[in-house]
Write a structure and sequence with these properties.
about 60 residues, about 0% strand, rod-shaped, mainly alpha
């Protein structure tokens, strides 16, 4: 049985090993927060959509 050593006194290598053991996975989910686009905001791509509806013009 190993003696208890406070976290602050562990070596950098041992701290890294302990931290990696505590970390879990996100289970396939991305941790990045996602928001939907603001429908009232100006969108350059959306303003060009009217050209696609006209039969004679190329996009």
């Amino acid at each position: 049985m190993e003696n208890f050593v406070p976290y602050e006194k562990l070596s950098k290598k041992e701290k890294r090993k302990l931290d990696n053991a505590k970390r879990g996975s996100w289970g396939g989910m991305s941790p990045v927060t996602r928001r939907s686009d603001n429908p009232k905001a100006y969108n350059r791509k959306r303003t060009q959509d009217w050209k696609k509806e006209l039969p004679g013009l190329r996009p």
